[in-house]
Specification:
heterodimer, A: 5-stranded antiparallel β-sheet, globular, B: 115 residues, mainly beta, 7-stranded mixed β-sheet, 4-stranded antiparallel β-sheet, 0% helix
Chain lengths: 113, 115
């Protein structure tokens, strides 16, 4: 089955700096890669996703890049703000597989004022 | 809309007791699932369902049962609780759509402690 590794497990940045979280996956058939944000005491929420037919996707301050050859994808947050502090999860799956997403272990991002 | 509703939010059990975590969604999603979240291990899939009457096992199904009698409800049963089942449990649902993949909507979680 799929295995997703996520690094780092914790990340602290100064407000206004950029943050990068990296994930690698094992199954070359995977073609859908979402990122979820979990605020304290809440369930995860989708913030951005990317499919294997594109290499990069942006949504305001958030971007995701995908390298299918190397089997890794990354989340980039620019101009970080205190409200970006949360746990971020990457995930991977093959579309049509009844959404059996495999999640990474999570990254606790802290944005310091 | 309420979205995905989980009850209870907190529960303490003794080893060997049984209980049911309830999950209901009002979005008419075909797909529903249960995950457990443990420190350093991310979210692991326990069981999932692609429609009423259809369930299947995920990565960590042992010790848990599910059923799906309606589109809206997907309860998770612990038949004989063990300390290893101490965790935070999340129910999630989604629309299957043409690609069979899309956004998962999560409940707020149920924190279970087994003594």
């Amino acid at each position: 089955g799929e295995n997703v590794e996520q690094h780092p497990s914790t990340l602290s940045v100064q407000e206004g700096d950029s943050a990068v979280i990296k994930c690698t996956y094992s199954d070359s058939a995977s073609n859908y890669f979402p990122w979820y944000k979990q605020e304290l005491g809440k369930g995860p929420q989708l913030i951005i996703d990317i499919r294997s037919n594109v290499g990069e996707k942006k949504d305001q301050r958030i971007a995701v890049t995908l390298n299918k050859t190397a089997k890794h994808f990354s989340l980039h947050i620019t101009e970080t703000q205190p409200e970006d502090s949360a746990v971020y999860f990457c995930a991977a799956t093959f579309e049509g597989s009844a959404r059996q997403l495999t999640f990474g272990s999570g990254t606790q991002l802290t944005v310091l004022p | 809309n309420a979205g995905v509703t989980q009850t209870p939010k907190f529960q303490v059990l003794k080893t060997g007791q049984s209980m049911t975590l309830q999950c209901a969604q009002d979005m008419n999603h075909e797909y529903m699932s249960w995950y457990r979240q443990d420190p350093g291990m991310g979210l692991r899939l326990i069981h999932y369902s692609v429609g009423a009457g259809i369930t299947d096992q995920g990565e960590v199904p042992n010790g848990y049962n599910v059923s799906r009698s309606t589109t809206e409800d997907f309860p998770l049963r612990l038949l004989s609780a063990a300390p290893s089942q101490t965790s935070v449990y999340f129910c999630a649902s989604s629309y299957l759509g043409a690609t069979g993949t899309g956004e998962l909507f999560f409940g707020e979680g149920s924190r279970l402690t087994v003594l």
